[in-house]
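Um, can you check?
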Amino acid sequence: MGSACIKVTKYFLFLFNLIFFILGAVILGFGVWILADKSSFISVLQTSSSSLRMGAYVFIGVGAVTMLMGFLGCIGAVNEVRCLLGLLKQEMGGIVTELIRDYNSSREDSLQDAWDYVQAQVKCCGWVSFYNWTHNAELMNRPEVTYPCSCEVKGEEDNSLSVRKGFCEAPGNRTQSGNHPEDWPVYQEGCMEKVQAWLQENLGIILGVGVGVAIIELLGMVLSICLCRHVHSEDYSKVPKY
């Protein structure tokens, strides 16, 4: 059952990226056509408006990038999504470790709030482990035992959705001086494996949303091309001359 699900997911991912590749080719071709066509009203517009030429270059750039993403995605799908998941995990790891290092308890930041929510709900701490927080200068310079509030171990009966932010001091008196991570009442497991497991479990939903967006974009491109062809077929002899 598991292997069959992986195969279906792989084929859906391949199809999704193939659609992206085709969509990129259409956008790229549309941009090239605007620049290369000298026998229609488009060429007249180019001479009077630099915005159209600039738009054509934008189409070419976006189309080329979309084709490249689709091509790499197809390769990743053929390799059973490991390449894409590995790349995503590496990119997320870099972002999260930098976020943890620069975390400031006195600053309002949406990314910090989002990571606090992840740690509290997934019941993990740090990226690889809770030791990632030892790279935060503000936290480690505290003289008392202080830890990330969102990492605090909760009891089984605590189902509260509220998330504590910033840094918290450990309750009770500590005889030793300094902030030692071994004394933190936090989850010791990092969030990396749990986030990767969540991605694998919800990959079908993610792909479904992505395919839906790609189909909508493709339909929009088809309608745009049809409208452009309709405008191209009109009689421009009626256009007033100045």
Remarks:
- DSSP finds eight helices and two strands in the chain.
- Helices lie at 2-36, 41-48, 50-78, 82-101, 110-122, 137-140, 192-201, 203-233.
- The chain has two domains: 2-80+203-238, 90-195.
- The beta strands are 146-148, 167-169.
